Amino acid sequence: MPIVKNVSRAVNQLLQSSGCGCGISVVPVRRIGISPRQVASDASFHSVSFSRSDHPRVLITGGLGQLGVGLAKLLRKRFGKNNVILSDIRKPADNVFYSGPFIYSDILDYKNLREIVVNNRITWLFHYSALLSAVGEANVPLARAVNITGLHNVLDIAAEHNLRLFVPSTIGAFGPTSPRDPTPDLCIQRPRTIYGVSKVHAELMGEYYHYRYGLDFRCLRYPGIISADSQPGGGTTDYAVQIFHDAIKTGKFQCNLKPDTRLPMMYIDDCLKATLEVMEAPAEALSMRTYNISAMSFSPEELAQEVQKHVPELQVTYSVDAVRQAIADSWPMNFDDSNARRDWGWKHDYDLPELVTTMFSFLGSDSRIAQAS
Ligand SMILES: NC(=O)C1=CN([C@@H]2O[C@H](COP(=O)(O)OP(=O)(O)OC[C@H]3O[C@@H](n4cnc5c(N)ncnc54)[C@H](O)[C@@H]3O)[C@@H](O)[C@H]2O)C=CC1
Ligand SMILES: CC(=O)[C@H](N)C(=O)O
């Protein structure tokens, strides 16, 4: 737990950072010098050698999921292959292992994570490890551990080592009492999943560490992300990826959400572009530390219609999964991302037709389309 050495100074800083205008003198938060946690390091670790440059040295946790490999690819192009380390508790596929540095890291192992950060002189951390909404409901204790305890480890290490920290949040951080169409950045957040609760916790803890310890915390609330070359990890929006695979493989798709369930969605390239942009944005441009980002919003029937333009014989049936449907019914239908657009120039590239065309060109649907015509 953080050790507060000087309570009155801390209170002054908090009051000042909340803009109370009380006329209290300010001590720069970054100079407090409080380490949120102190743990002696005793394990040996062979560090990955980095090229010497001004580039950030990056660690991605949970990097073998749907988003991490693509993020590593983008960051390696920008900062150099050896400046970006992917980590996870899973075994990487050959192509991932040989594409750049990979390290085993369980975010629940605080000392190991800290050693990786220290030995590799990490300066930016992208914290992707998580259990998503549907798998989280199926294993609440594990979701609580990974999404909340793991986040605490990451926050403390990031604050202690002065890292720039990116933690993704989600449309799932809102709940049935939030305005759903559209959902603004700042509104009531009472999610009803452990995933959502843990993400609201992450947003609040990250912002608290920012104001209290000067942690350079940056957070985007992602919509459901759609990708061709990586599989989703057990979320409510997974249907919007599966439909493409099933359309090509079998020409039949059984959707686990009702046809009119509208949710915000985004193509992975837009998601990763936004992530890099917000990390590179000058701190002065950020009027907030947690932003909604948005690209499109559609329902299963609207997606199916667009997919059928490419695979006309696709048959879609509906077999509703009660857990996923209840989750989706509590989430935003449209996301208001005007603050991201104003503050750091966020702009998406992919709407629904471009998304569908791009997915099929990646997945090589030509044979199916040819068969159909
Ligand atoms: N994919 C999506 O549609 C969205 C994703 N996000 C967020 O983006 C981040 C990345 O998402 P995805 O790649 O889709 O997730 P994913 O579920 O595909 O991957 C998560 C990764 O975390 C790893 N992991 C689990 N326990 C771990 C532990 N103890 N230590 C280290 N790693 C562990 C898993 O092995 C997995 O590779 C997550 O934080 C997620 O909440 C937010 C909104 C939408
Ligand atoms: C929107 C998300 O956070 C994720 N894809 C999920 O459905 O759980």
UniProtKB/TrEMBL annotation:
Catalytically driven reaction(s): L-threonine + NAD(+) = (2S)-2-amino-3-oxobutanoate + NADH + H(+)
Domain NAD-dependent epimerase/dehydratase: 58-293
Gene Ontology biological process terms, A to Z: L-threonine catabolic process
Pathway: Amino-acid degradation; L-threonine degradation via oxydo-reductase pathway; glycine from L-threonine: step 1/2
InterPro entries: Epimerase_deHydtase, NAD(P)-bd_dom_sf, NAD(P)_epim/dehydratase
SUPFAM superfamilies xref list: NAD(P)-binding Rossmann-fold domains
EC assignment: 1.1.1.103
Gene Ontology molecular function, alphabetical: L-threonine 3-dehydrogenase activity
Assigned protein family: Belongs to the NAD(P)-dependent epimerase/dehydratase family.
Cited function: Catalyzes the NAD(+)-dependent oxidation of L-threonine to 2-amino-3-ketobutyrate, mediating L-threonine catabolism.
PANTHER family given in the database record: L-THREONINE 3-DEHYDROGENASE, L-THREONINE 3-DEHYDROGENASE, MITOCHONDRIAL
Name of the protein in its database record: L-threonine 3-dehydrogenase, mitochondrial
Species the sequence originates in: Dromaius novaehollandiae (Emu)
Gene responsible for this protein: Tdh
